[in-house]
Amino acid sequence: MLFKMASFVFWSGVYNGALAFSLVFPPLYRSIGLNVCSPVWGWLIAGFLAYTSAVLIFASRDLVRRGQLVYWESLLRYVAAAVLIPAGLFGDIGSIATLLGLGDLVIGVVYALGLTRELGVTHKALLFDRLG
């Protein structure tokens, strides 16, 4: 099976949407072992995830023109991993956060490396929106 970045980006956008949906309902995220200190923080993060979900799904339709949006999302994934992994290991947010953080790290690496390979551009071109 041939790996397609557009499909990966699309499905990771759907994944973000599912996470956003789950963070709106405290009983839902608590059932998987995630402990967000206040429902308001969960809702705020859900709004952020819903936005990034829409951006990823939108960008997946034309990576040549919108790949830089996905590349910047990879940077957000690294930040999420840097926050979630230690919070899951040493904090009270729940060990599931460690798995989510590791998932974010993997997705971020796939975005960064996959986009440069599939589009035939450099990291610098993606970072500074110089695709054309």
Note down, in words, how this protein is organized.
This protein has helices spanning 5-24, 26-31, 39-60, 63-90, 96-119, 123-127. The chain is 80% helix and 0% strand. It has 132 residues and is mostly helical.
Question: In total, how many beta strands?
Answer: 0
The SS-based structural class is: mainly alpha
Helix fraction bin: over 70%
The pLDDT mean sits at 95
Beta percentage is under 5%
Number of helices: 6
Overall geometry comes to elongated
Multimerization status: single chain
| Residue runs with pLDDT of under 50 for 5 or more positions | none
State the order of secondary-structure elements, H for helix, E for strand: HHHHHH
Gyration radius (Cα, Å) is 15 Å
Distance between the termini: 29 Å
Describe the sheet with the most strands: none
What attributes characterize this protein structure?
132 residues; mainly alpha; 6 helices
SSE diagram, text form:
Layout: H1 5-24, H2 26-31, H3 39-60, H4 63-90, H5 96-119, H6 123-127
Helix pairs in contact: 1-3, 3-4, 4-5
Write a compact overview of the structure shown:
The protein has helices spanning 5-24, 26-31, 39-60, 63-90, 96-119, 123-127.
